[in-house]
Amino acid sequence: MDTQQVSAPPRAPSPVPVDAAPSSGVMHINSRHTSRFTVVGNHLAQHRELSLLAIGLATHIQSLPTGAKIGIKTLTERFPESEARIAAALRELEAHGYLKRTRERLPNGRVITRTCSYNQPGSANAHPVPAPKRRPKPTHPAPAPVAPAPVPPPPALSPAPRPAPRPAPKPAPRPEPPRIPAPAASKPPPPPLPQPRDPLPQHQHAALALLTDLHHHTPQLTLAERDVHHLAPAVVAWYERGATSTAIRHALTADLPHPLKHPAKLLRHRLTRLLPPPRTPHRAPIPLQNCDHCERVFRSPTPGNCRDCRDGGGGEGGGGGALPLAE
């Protein structure tokens, strides 16, 4: 019989010997790192109380070089987790001794946050030790050893000169305290609203109606009920000074700013600043009087005799008959 020829192996060779493979669980296939690696202790990688996010964040921080930024904003830009989750993970690491954050004040007065990462909890007194620099390997073979030259006899010893006294070190300058800016001047209060002297009921009703009806003419001037009652006395003062409803409405609605954010404040300002002057008192005409002697009509604030009778003329006609009325 012919022998069957096999062209390919039945399966790929396993990277782990069959005798060493466990029946279940994880199998480690490790390669030796020669550069860019970080040593992490099992006390952190297998911590029973830390969350998985805190363990991964501590591993990331320990892999960063000294001086790298690890603020919450920087870590949020680097990882997809939110600021709240990263802040909670940092607090976990602080509680278990893997992280320490302290606030320090610099000589110039600025306050910064100093962050220290510990790869072993409880090592609060440890200091970072720089790695020793490696010497470059020689590219050429080492030269053959040379016989040492004969050492001449030492000269006669002379007294060593005394070192000059060192100057006293200058005291370090004291940091200047931060300057506190002077408080800004308080804004003066607005002038009071004009108040009527003798408010009439018809003026009060007209003022309330004018302020309530403003939004029909100008939609931007829609007032609340409290603002209407607050501004009504000022409108009554305008009525007392002779202003008409048309004049008041024009003064309040002309040339409005855009956009208008505070209509009540604008109306208060205009009612105060544009208040018209008080009206001059109306002089009543001097009343007409009849002369007690000649019955002539004349103007005088009080009854009595006319000017001719007071001067002694006795009036025209000589008698006491009635005379034509004169002005």
List descriptors.
elongated; 28% helix; 327 residues; mainly alpha; disordered C terminus
Please describe what this structure looks like.
There is one protein chain. This protein has 327 residues and is mainly alpha-helical. Among the domains are: 42-117, Orthogonal Bundle (Arc Repressor Mutant, subunit A); 201-273, no CATH class. Helix content is 28%, strand content 6%. The protein has helices spanning 42-45, 52-63, 72-78, 83-95, 201-212, 214-217, 225-240, 245-253, 263-273, 307-311; strands spanning 99-105, 111-117, 288-290, 297-299. Strands 1-2 form a two-stranded antiparallel sheet. Helix 7 packs parallel to helix 9 (263-273). The protein is elongated and about 160 Å long. The termini are far apart. The model is unreliable at 315-327 (pLDDT under 50).
Give a short overview:
The protein has 327 residues and is mainly alpha-helical. 28% of the residues lie in helices and 6% in strands. Among the domains are: 42-117, Arc Repressor Mutant, subunit A; 201-273, no CATH class.
CATH topology heading of the domain at 42-117: Arc Repressor Mutant, subunit A
Biggest sheet overview: 2 strands, antiparallel
Q: What is the end-to-end distance?
A: 168 Å
Q: What is the averaged pLDDT score? A: 79
The first-level CATH class of the domain at 42-117 is given as Mainly Alpha
Topology:
Elements: H1 42-45, H2 52-63, H3 72-78, H4 83-95, E1 99-105, E2 111-117, H5 201-212, H6 214-217, H7 225-240, H8 245-253, H9 263-273, E3 288-290, E4 297-299, H10 307-311
Antiparallel strand pairs: 1-2, 3-4
